[in-house]
Amino acid sequence: MGKKLIFLDLDGTALTDDKKLPSGNRKAIDEAMAAGHKIVVTTGRPLASARKQALRHGLAGPGSYIVAYNGGLIYDAEHEKVIFQQTIDLETVRAVFAEAARRGVHIQAYRGDKVLVDPRNEDAELRSYCSLIEIDYEVIPDIAQLTDEPVKLHSSTLALQPGGSDSEAVEPDAGLVALRDWINTEYPEKLDAFLSAPVYLEIVSHGMNKGIAVHKMAELLDCSIEDTIAIGDEANDIPMIREAGIGAAMCNGLAEAKDAADYVTEADNNHNGVAEVIRKFVL
After folding, report:
1. What's the Cα-to-Cα distance from 250 to each of 167, 233, 280, rounded to whole Å?
2. pLDDT digits (tens, 9 = 90+) for 95-127
3. What whole-number distance in Å separates Cα of residue 181 and Cα of residue 204?
4. Local confidence band at 167 (pLDDT 50, 70, 90 cut-offs)
5. pTM of the model
6. Which secondary structure element, helix H or strand E, spans residue 131, and what is its range?
7. What's the Cα-to-Cα distance from 183 to each of 69, 205, 222, rounded to whole Å?
8. Considering only CA atoms, which of 239, 269, 235 is closest in space to residue 163?
9. What integer pLDDT is reported at residue 162 of this predicted model?
10. Domains in the chain and their CATH numbers?
């Protein structure tokens, strides 16, 4: 058996609803890493937030990598450098911001270690989001002044903060669904817009997703796709669940994620579901 490359989603998967790494998951991850298998944190979070979580939970040591922004960026955690990223051109960014404003929907970009917004979007949703992912924000007078192409745009609503078992039971926000459909119709060759939770809309460059990241990382580390394992719970995890040699979905996950999986856990994210997968297919 070859060494495994384990792509691990954070929210609703490795982490509990209150953003902790349960002891059973911690022990299984440590045993897998000690045996020479690699863990790749694979998340929709921005890099600054993903890196903070990886450091907090011991997933940023030698040989560690982070896939952030839903596959739009790959980061070598050991050497602290970006090794791949795909950005969105500024003209398209401004058009999407304008459409979100017309619809009265919150939208944000990212620059460095901060969430980036214009004055209209300095709102309760922004403050709640930044508190949840533990990074700061920056306000610029007009998004037209943005000079750095972002890797991802993000639109959201305060209707519900997603977490674990709540996500499947809540209907997707109608405003986000409408904006998603507009983006995918207007920019089919530039952007991909999809929900990562009922209240979170992710907007990335066309073709960027966690499934692409599985292939890029496997190539980078000279690992066979058959030796990759992906574990997730939400819609944005479906591409990596499908592309990995073994795709596992959490029992608390979205029905579509479970339908796409080779294996569905018996334990949820609050009760060491990730450990169940690692022990069954790795250890």
Report:
1. 12, 5, 14
2. 999 999 999 999 999 999 999 999 999 999 999
3. 14
4. very low
5. 0.90
6. helix 124-133
7. 18, 11, 36
8. 269
9. 44
10. 5-86+208-281 (3.40.50.1000), 90-205 (3.30.1240.10)
